[in-house]
Known about the structure:
With about 450 residues, the chain is an alpha/beta fold. The protein contains 14 helices and 15 strands. It is globular. The N terminus is likely disordered.
Amino acid sequence: MCSLLWSSIAMCVALQLLQLGIVHPSASHLRITHLPGQPQVEFQQFSGYVTVDDRNQQALFFYFAEAEKDAASKPLVLWLNGGPGCSSLGVGAFSENGPFRPKGEALVRNQFSWNREANMLYLETPIGVGFSYSTDTSSYEGVNDKITARDNLVFLKNWFIKFPEYRNRSLFIIGESYAGHYVPQLAELMLQFNKKEKLFNLKGIALGNPVLEFTTDFNSRAEFFWSHGLISDTTYKVFTSVCNYSRYVREYYNGAVSPVCSSVMSQVSTETSRFVDKYDVTLDVCLSSVFSQTKVLNPQQVTETIDVCVEDETVNYLNRKDVQSALHARLVGVQRWSACSNVLDYELRDLEIPTITVVGKLVQEGIPVLVYSGDQDSVIPLTGSRTLVHKLAIKLGLKTTVPYRVWFEKQQVGGWTQVYGDILSFATIRGASHEAPFSQPERSLVLFKSFLEGRPMPQEF
């Protein structure tokens, strides 16, 4: 009980909350009391900065939503969006699998939020993304996978100082798109660090529509286009022989697209049509800028102004001063928060460094890995991911333990899955886009729950 000597009732209440474990003692200043327009919830939220480089004053921004119920018994999940250079706050938390989605001036509950099953930590990485910043703008130049992995490791180490009760908690890392680079490389560093000091209780990683091997992933696009009726037989032939997609992307980022590749891509673009969302080929609605995390994977020779038919509510919401204040966030060196960074100069040649080999090392270290694909995504199609996982299983000598089969969500087929050696898994999410939790939230939640529990996808309904 509080003594009557306390001069402030508020201080008394705060002390009681700390004693009950309701507010984290070392992170109470990071607690979100209430987001503007937020419905009432029982779980706690935190957000703010973790310094990763004192000398250059570099800080990464995070948003943390504890589990809806029994947070103390639920695992910790770190979620990373890709790009490279896109926000896990705006894309992941507020558009995909977080507890809220902006609607007008308010927030509405996402009934399929992943914090139903876990404590969700969203990290805006690398520096220069979202609210993450460096006071030395030269730090934004030449950022690469190695720098990003190192900063993410430092972030987690320092985050555990603020939230020590999560230090020994089961930890999973999940990400999508270019996080196919971020996640495995961070996991590898964590295992290396654990050999010196046991800090990370890593239980598994999951990768959604990930970039794992440049040539296979990118060149699978031609077959996907053709099999879905988006290009003609003639175009399919030249797209797989005269100039494939990996060659085009390589030339594009080297600043010199050859006439032959320019001609082929013009033909592909004409047939697929700019009115088809390449990240969900069945989608009828307009593409919001919140999905620009994948633009780097889909470069265009001619910049087009996209006709956004619906208001980008996430961007509007996160640019409100009252929202930024509630999140303990600030803009440093930029005028507006954006879903993908306008200041980050990332080393895009890192695209060509395969990370499927790192995934193999993790499996050999006993870390379960799930690769999942929204099956309507043509940017990183399921065919490439499926091929890479199967080849990795053969290389590692893993036998099929769950034969390729359907899995269910309620009374409908949720997708297909195959498991190798009870440690390496592949799954599709039926009807899902590149951002699977956005387009198929309920099916994505079923997949997420099965992954955390370490069991195969539901075989019956």
